Amino acid sequence: MKDFKMSSKTLDGLPPLREIISDHQLSAKKSLGQNFLLDLNLTCKIARMAGDLTKHTILEIGPGPGGLTRALLYSGAKKVIAIERDERLSPALNQIKNHYNKRLELIYADALNEDIEVYLNGPVKVIANLPYNIGTELLVRWLTPTNWPPYWDSLTLMFQKEVAKRIVATPGSKAYGRLALLVQWRCNAKIVMEVSPQAFTPPPKVTSAVVHIERLEKPRYEADAKVLERVVAAAFNQRRKMLRVCLKTFSNDIEDILLSVSIKPTQRAEEIGLEKFCALARKLA
């Protein structure tokens, strides 16, 4: 692995990001959830959190002016496919593309409306400083494909710290909910670093965190994905109510079904672990 300490010049031979932003008169758009990461030492650290990149195609959503993109390519990524909605950023991104001998492929599209899989082949890692306004929705889509395992091997993603805590939360905590169960049913997840607001331009009002998620070849416990998703959504939609109330629309015998999988009908969703939710989904299926 390379030494990523910066000298007075940039580590990859390209101009400093602040200079590029100034030259092209770029600014982050709040409406697009943009917050630019300009510190290449920091973006290289994020790239390292994803492991060896040399055998993978890297999918990046929302590259902005290319701070993380440069780090991924400098770290030896076989190829980076970057999905960017804001075409104002094309001069900065094209500069990176040319510098790295076209190992960077740029697609100008809305990631929520684009069939991303058509651009991918071979093993894939997703690494991104996700726009705050679409981060959770993209994560849920990556976690709920039609078939499992999905096209990606791992996700290394920047979120607001509050969202990151929800991903790794355990039963009994306030952060525990649908997102934690969706992730932990099929993946291993951990928070690998926190990032202060001052690292961004403009600085957001909250601390961010990078979460590394590695897929499992099969879910931890057997359950039908659609049934489990419906059960978990209903249970946490009214998280302060007892499960016999939250889930009464699933069956007239919901109390007996809950008891059959060792769940007290008076318990609340935040008290129930993944294994029991899966057992409940199997019963209701």
Concise account of the structure shown:
The chain is α/β, with parallel strands linked by helices and 285 residues long. Helix content is 33%, strand content 18%.
Report on the structure:
The protein is an alpha/beta fold. It has two domains: 199 residues, Rossmann fold, CATH 3.40.50.150; 60 residues, Orthogonal Bundle (Helicase, Ruva Protein, domain 3). The protein has eleven helices and nine strands. The radius of gyration is 21 Å and the shape is elongated. It starts with 16 loop residues before the first helix and ends with a helix. Strand 5, helix 5 and strand 6 form a beta-alpha-beta unit. It has a seven-stranded mixed beta sheet, with helices on both faces. A two-stranded antiparallel sheet has the order 1-8. The N terminus is likely disordered. It is 33% helix and 18% strand.
Question: Helices and strands in order, then pairings?
Answer:
Layout: H1 17-23, E1 36-37, H2 40-49, E2 57-61, H3 67-74, E3 79-84, H4 90-99, E4 104-108, E5 124-129, H5 135-143, E6 152-160, H6 161-167, H7 178-186, E7 187-195, E8 200-201, E9 208-215, H8 225-237, H9 243-246, H10 254-260, H11 274-284
Parallel strand pairs: 2-3, 2-5, 3-4, 5-6
Antiparallel strand pairs: 1-8, 6-9, 7-9
Helix pairs in contact: 2-3, 8-11
